[in-house]
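::Encoded backbone::
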Amino acid sequence: MQIQQDVIEGLRWDQSLSSSEIGVEVGGGVTLAGHIASHSEKWNAETAVQRVSGVKALAEIDVILSGSSQRLDADIARFAKDAGAVITALHVVPRYSRAYEGEGLQEFRRECVSAAEEFLEEINAEARNAGVPCNPLHVTSDYPYDAILRAAEEQHCDLIAMASHGQKGVKGMLLGSETQKVSTHAKLPVLVFR
């Protein structure tokens, strides 16, 4: 079906998406299924689909975070406990102020803040389980690496610990990973968990 191929191509064209993880079904509208890593990726996928000529309806797509983030939270909490440190947990919410307008933007922002609070609560729970103090914090920025560096400075952090999600190939070369950008520009040590 032509509309399905057009949607698949639209998803592939958007460099911010892992289009191989998204399935497309057409029938009375377009349904996306699969694993989306974040609410901003969800928003980008929905927007890519809505740009395709002939799409009249889009079913909701779920954000499914991989279980590896929970393992990472526990690893960081154990590391902080062993080091006698306090965790400042940070989640960067995308701004998207120029690209989207009206109620759609407000709904996107609400979803992003809600996702940030859920994400931070998971980290806070792991910290509590490990007996480590945790200061959850979310900020809004379209440049996550810069927001991470500013927050680390403002919070007087001694170390930045973060995950590497492993952008590979052309996408990694063109966009660069946030972990790589933080590591390159940080004035303090960066510990990367894989």
Observations:
- The mean pLDDT is 78.
- The longest strand covers residues 87-93.
